[in-house]
Specification:
- This is Malonyl-CoA:ACP transacylase (MAT) domain-containing protein.
- The chain is mainly alpha-helical.
- It has one domain (2-58).
- The chain has three helices and no strands.
- It has helices at residues 2-16, 23-27, 38-58.
- The two termini are 23 Å apart.
- 16% of the residues are buried.
Length: 68
C-alpha cells in the first residue's frame, strides 16, 4: 500500500538521524535479531503504527481515540 510505505518512509527518515543504521534496513532486513535492541524495536513499532494509522485514515477510518 503506497500510503503505508510513504508514511513509514517519512517516519523512518526522521528517526534515522538518531540511529546508527537506517531503520528500514533493520526493520525489513534478513536478521530479525537486529530488532532485539530497544532503540530499533521501539522505533520500528512507532513507524509501523504511524504508517498503519495513515493507511486506515486513507480508507476513511477515523478513530474517536488513539492511545498507545
Amino acid at each position: 500500500f503506497p500510503v503505508f510505505a510513504e508514511a513509514f518512509d517519512a517516519v523512518s527518515a526522521g528517526l534515522d538521524e538518531h540511529l546508527d543504521r537506517p531503520l528500514r534496513e533493520v526493520a525489513w532486513g534478513q536478521n530479525a535479531s537486529d530488532l532485539d535492541g530497544t532503540a530499533y524495536a521501539q522505533s520500528a513499532l512507532f513507524a509501523y503504527e504511524v504508517a498503519l494509522f495513515q493507511l486506515l485514515a486513507s480508507w476513511g477510518v477515523t478513530p474517536d481515540l488513539v492511545a498507545g
